[in-house]
Amino acid sequence: KILITGALGQIGTELTNRLVEIHGAENVVASGLDRWDKNLTSAGFYERMDVTNTQLVRQVIKDYEITTVYHLASLLSGTSEKQPLFAWKLNLEPLLNFCELAKEGLLKKIFWPSSIAVFGKGIPKENVGQDVVLNPTTVYGISKMAGEKWCEYYFDKYGVDVRSIRYPGLISWKTPAGGGTTDYAVEIFYEAIEEGKYTSFISENTAMPMLYMEDAINATLKLMEAPKENLTVHTSYNLGGLSFTPKQLAEEIKKEIPEFTIDYTTDFRQAIADSWPASIDDSVGKKDWNLSYDYDISAMTKDMLKNLRVKLADK
Ligand code: VAH
């Protein structure tokens, strides 16, 4: 069976539902800190589980005979800056526990999300490569860099099949994002529909790597289904997709909602965004496991507004 941690989160809800479509509900165990929310996940099973409780996690793995784990539970960049020590604990210890379980032969495969937050000072802003020096300046970026090194260690030393993607900012409509720096690009759509205007906490010309959730989920499944021998990266694969500024996104929204207006009041997350690249070179993923994308900024904007109008009308 497959276990997803953080299954009620922004990535988790959509990844869980896709895994159910592929493997069947009876083979998917969703887990999260919150109470079960039937309409959020179609998994056959749900375990209310604190991933830092290593004994409980080990018991769940054994009880359900889990062989693959998608470990998504984590604190994002904004929240991590506010709770550094808890962020370090939550973002690292459960990953190590899953790697230990795999080393003991209890797990066959692990997916773990890293982030473009691992990049920081001293590198060009554009088209950042797979093997540039990692100089993260945020708690979140430091935790993700450390996690990548642990993934590589367990692969090199024990052959643990742990696979990872450095996600850019992810945009989706099914589940709100939580505490991220790129979340302006999610909130803006809700407010464009509900208020006709949005105050962005990221300045107008700050470009960041972004991707529509559909493309991120497809990339994740492609990586996980790739033959192990094809993989040349054992820290985490760059993934770039789109790159745009709040101003460019607002222009796209105005094509669908002409009266939409945006203004800017930056907060502490501007400094985080300034430390990150503007665009990513993801050619290694394209070569190793045929990474591709379906949504450009225009197709994403149309799909977001179409689906959010329906979702928000039901409220
Ligand atoms: C964040 N959405 O903003 C996440 C992501 C690259 C950004 O890691 O923290």
UniProtKB/TrEMBL annotation:
Record-linked InterPro entries: Epimerase_deHydtase, NAD(P)-bd_dom_sf, NAD(P)_epim/dehydratase
Pfam family name, one: Epimerase
Domain of life the protein comes from: Bacteria
Sequence ranges assigned to domain NAD-dependent epimerase/dehydratase in this UniProt record: 2-240
Homology family: Belongs to the NAD(P)-dependent epimerase/dehydratase family.
Name of the protein: NAD-dependent epimerase/dehydratase family protein
Organism this protein belongs to: Kaistella gelatinilytica
